Amino acid sequence: MPAKTTARKTKDRKERKDRNKDEGRSARILEAADALFCERGFAGTSLRDVAKDAEVNKGLIVYYYQNKAGLFSAVLERYYEAHGAALAGLSQEGPLRERIHAMLDGYFSFIGDNRRYARLIQQEVARSGEHLPLIRKNLRGLFEVVAGELGEALPAEGPLSPKHFFLTLSGMTISYFTYAPALKALWGSSPVGELALAERREHIHWVVDALLDRLERDAA
Amino acid sequence: MPAKTTARKTKDRKERKDRNKDEGRSARILEAADALFCERGFAGTSLRDVAKDAEVNKGLIVYYYQNKAGLFSAVLERYYEAHGAALAGLSQEGPLRERIHAMLDGYFSFIGDNRRYARLIQQEVARSGEHLPLIRKNLRGLFEVVAGELGEALPAEGPLSPKHFFLTLSGMTISYFTYAPALKALWGSSPVGELALAERREHIHWVVDALLDRLERDAA
Amino acid sequence: MPAKTTARKTKDRKERKDRNKDEGRSARILEAADALFCERGFAGTSLRDVAKDAEVNKGLIVYYYQNKAGLFSAVLERYYEAHGAALAGLSQEGPLRERIHAMLDGYFSFIGDNRRYARLIQQEVARSGEHLPLIRKNLRGLFEVVAGELGEALPAEGPLSPKHFFLTLSGMTISYFTYAPALKALWGSSPVGELALAERREHIHWVVDALLDRLERDAA
Amino acid sequence: MPAKTTARKTKDRKERKDRNKDEGRSARILEAADALFCERGFAGTSLRDVAKDAEVNKGLIVYYYQNKAGLFSAVLERYYEAHGAALAGLSQEGPLRERIHAMLDGYFSFIGDNRRYARLIQQEVARSGEHLPLIRKNLRGLFEVVAGELGEALPAEGPLSPKHFFLTLSGMTISYFTYAPALKALWGSSPVGELALAERREHIHWVVDALLDRLERDAA
DNA sequence: GATGAATGAGCGTTCATTCAT
DNA sequence: AATGAATGAACGCTCATTCAT
């Protein structure tokens, strides 16, 4: 009888190994955690659920990421790297107006490709929780790029200073992805379909043009 | 916890009763829940903490609000009413430009006075969770007012449709209150001081003017 | 079907209540914890086992005693009180020799009646762990009584100082209860039977007399 | 834990290997286990901690000692051998009184040199646990030597039988090492300093003389 | 209205142990 | 000989909730 059990066990493990060869357990944990943290927040996500989604033993999460907070950090960290890579591509050559359009285009693409990231920091930033330092680290990089780009056209202080435009432009971009789903029912069509995204892109460009026009006229 | 000294307890209760006459236990529960849900999110808040902050017996929360979800709904509901009252005041008479400025001023004031509300829906909207229906109900009212106001100057569809401006304008307002605190350290000064708020107000008005200018020129 | 479940539950609770009327749950928890901590030590005892032995819900232990350490403290505290009461009776009137015999008799009785206590502190004193402060508090009282009693006949310092006699006499008493059981198999008869205890008492008195004889002769 | 930097790891391993050549991993495991079991007891010690202290892979403990109980046995066994060797030296030639003094001197030295052993059996003997058989084996040897030595001067049964003197004398010796640390704060000075130990030795000799005096007088 | 006792499910985490390499 | 991945049971503890009073 015990022989049977062992046999079955071995088989199970083999099967699983085959299926998992491509990815590795720790990566699968990270992926599952990412999805769940994003959907349910830090407190709302249980390691058991992560383990179940990743088809992995509960203890293995601790083995790889020490504890729940470590897992969360690992998820954020992974985005931080993606974020950094994206930022590197945001700064372009050319005249100001083109550069800003390009930058917002790039940022829109990044957020669109990493929607979970947007939702994640939205949640954590709203609750000024224990993870803020990590979040802040992530935001700072973005701010510096945007502020650097806009800096030459704006006063350092006051209502037209870079920090206000940073919040306005990033809010305009991010909030589309975080709010739109909640309003989807209200609008009928999906806000993240290809056409809808293109339309939002157009809107953003239009707004940016409007702002730059005004800035130019003010300067004159 | 079991009683330690009955005498002390009785005294405590008297004191508490006196202090609380004006407010009522259920209101105190709501207030404590509001603060905690906002700071820690739904899952991160425990009824035990709510009870402690409200200086109320744990069972009483259940008595008044049935369960945790009921308490959360009650908190949102309360804002829904405040929101409704605020919306009523948003629509003004007069020429379009003034009306829009007035509306955004009103909205900014409302969010500024109900920062917790902003953080609360920001959290819940990001996690597309069980409470979305209630959130949606709250958002819809706002959307309709804003869309109604802007409707006359905008095309019904496309990148300049009201829904885009709704997201842009509300995102510009809300994200200041939710993101700015996370960047406070980066900027030095408090983003919610009186002067800082006035500055943000100015920024918003400047942006609105820029957008309306462009719209007018496009129309011409 | 659900009716059945409810019915059974109610019945269960009633039954239990009847059986427990006399004692109270928290007392039963304490009793079970006492037995288990003594037998398996602090680390070797699980709250689940305590709950099972006390026929009580796991969570109730936490409800009454906060956490495992609190439960352990409660067990020790209870003995501390018993200990204090016993100490009060140890100091007698009369000539020195009688007083010392009476004191050791009283201490032997106390330990005999609270064998778990002896084993408990024996364990905790050997591992210089987190609970030493509590243990120390318990020991200090005893030391002071014994040292006070012996003080008049002994030099304050050196190999005949009270502290050495304290350790010798208490060790002689306690070690019987802790070590003898381990040697029971070697000796055949039970070391805690009535006759065996009387014999040990006699031995102790004989030793004390021998020591006092020597002290007197030394003094002469 | 998964590797962080392979390079660093390899280096670490080399360093460790060099440092450990003289000792061998299994010996280092035993040493670490000894210290931890003594300080925290069997249940309070985790193999993880042993592995960490021994700077050894967790699995290696299992490889050498099968499981936790096996490791514990190995620790006790080691003392059993040391104990046996010490016992061999306890029995001396010469008149009774000298022989007994010499025996207690030897035993005191042995315990003083193997304090952990004393604490270990104290813990395990107090909790009449799963390891009693091994403990008993260790105690039996000692008992037989002591009883053999005292046998000629004592009645086989009753309050003056060897078993009582065995417990009294060994308790007097052991309890100094196990209790004294707990009373250290009470006494001010360290109980295991060289002078303090010499003083305790004197005390024990004084007691033994008193007992033998009394025995001689009783016999006369 | 209001309380405190009580429950059971589930939490994050630790643990001894297994096993392939 | 030695390692690190992996497991499953159990741990102390928190939780929302129920219920009698």
Q: Would you give an account of this structure?
A:
The structure is a homotetramer of 220-residue chains. By secondary structure, chain A is an all-alpha fold. Chain A has 2 domains: 53 residues, Orthogonal Bundle (Arc Repressor Mutant, subunit A); 142 residues, Tetracycline Repressor, domain 2 (Orthogonal Bundle). Chain A is 82% helix and 0% strand. Chain A has 10 helices and no strands. In chain A, helix 4 crosses helix 5 and helix 6 packs across helix 9. The first copy, chain A, is elongated, with a radius of gyration of 22 Å. The N and C termini of chain A lie far apart (90 Å). The N terminus of chain A is likely disordered. Chains A and B meet through helix 2, helix 7, helix 8, helix 9 and helix 10 of A and helix 2, helix 7, helix 8, helix 9 and helix 10 of B. The structure holds a DNA duplex (21 and 21 nucleotides).
Structural features:
disordered N terminus, Tetracycline Repressor, domain 2, homotetramer, 220 residues, 2 domains, DNA-binding, Arc Repressor Mutant, subunit A, mainly alpha, 10 helices
